[in-house]
Write a structure and sequence with these properties.
Distance between the termini: 26 Å
Radius of gyration: 18 Å
CATH architecture: Roll
Number of helices: 1
Order of helices and strands: EEEEEEHEEEE
Helix content: under 10%
Strand content: over 45%
């Protein structure tokens, strides 16, 4: 990994991880994206513009409903994320079984010695379907981000929150 990235940032330097333990005592960060051509974190802002009878415009911002779609996701035997997703499907879980943490790592901001700037947030991972075509067994899923974002550093597959 280059220690200094300048100019236009290549997409591969914005890394997205999920804790594949889904609430375990020690997170195991799984980088999503091996089969994805695109992954966007949709902010989904809740905003409103109102114009009153005086001709004035008021702006209200009620926050965000942040989510991302991972499609396709190909199931791989022995893969920790696959095991959790399959369990959610098999039990039709709709509770905290689906809850884990997401981690965004800015691989352009830092280096392997000092670590990279990162942001952690709880999320719910919800499979949207399962099956697929002849290319392989697929489990596309939605990541629904919830709760506060925590800034910190990512180094050696470990996240450390800022103090």
């Amino acid at each position: 990994m280059p220690s200094s990235i300048t100019g236009k940032i290549a997409r591969k330097y914005m890394a997205h991880f999920l804790d594949s333990t889904f609430g375990g005592t020690t997170p195991s960060w799984y980088r999503i994206g091996a089969d994805l051509e695109e992954y966007n974190v949709e902010m989904n802002p809740d905003t409103e513009l109102k114009k009153n009878i005086l001709g004035e415009t008021a702006f209200t911002h009620n926050g965000y409903e942040v989510s991302g779609e991972a499609e396709p996701y190909y199931a791989v035997v022995g893969d920790a994320l696959f095991e959790k997703l399959q369990n959610i499907i098999d039990t039709m879980a709709n509770d905290d079984t689906c809850k884990t943490s997401a981690l965004e790592v800015h691989l352009w901001d830092g280096d392997e010695t000092a670590g990279f700037k990162a942001v952690k947030q709880d999320c719910y991972v919800v499979p949207t379907s399962y099956g697929g075509d002849t290319s392989g067994y697929q489990i596309p899923f939605t990541v629904n981000y919830v709760g506060p974002r925590v800034s910190g550093t990512y180094k050696n597959n470990t996240f450390t929150a800022d103090t």
